[in-house]
């Protein structure tokens, strides 16, 4: 199975969002794509978020108990993420979850991770990108590294055990290292 990589061209991140809006009857998948790209939350953690979780934020920090690790981690909510939460809450006042399904079959439950991966994959296929539910989390790290954010900072942001894990996670490949050598001009 091919490993999911970050979307390396920023404009394609916005294009995936556009395709998710265009090819689905609701904005839920596009909204989730944006939220994940803005927060670097794991998809399973984002899907479990309830509106009541946002009632307890301090400033723009959301304390989240990670399903994978069981640890509590603080996630900074960007203005764009906060606006998205406010809009979804206003549009769906009867929902409990931030990313809740409207279908009768799954009423009162968040969308499934499997469905999210399938929807993201469909949008990625149109753009010839290999993406899935975990891609937005990787996007944030990849583009932050390209902007010069330090590796120790990203390792802490992700809660990784080592910088090597973060490097691999952010999609830094041999080609990126070759590009460094190729760009030496002195």
From TrEMBL:
Keywords, alphabetical: DNA integration, DNA recombination
Superkingdom to which the source organism belongs: Bacteria
Pfam families: Phage_integrase (PF00589)
GO BP, one annotated term: DNA integration
InterPro entries: DNA_brk_join_enz, Integrase-like_cat_sf, Integrase_catalytic, Tyrosine_recombinase_XerCD
Cleaved signal peptide residues: none
UniProt key word Thylakoid: no
A GO term, aspect molecular function: DNA binding
Domain Tyr recombinase: 4-182
PANTHER family the UniProt entry points to: INTEGRASE_RECOMBINASE YOEC-RELATED, PHAGE INTEGRASE-RELATED
Name used for this protein in its record: Integrase
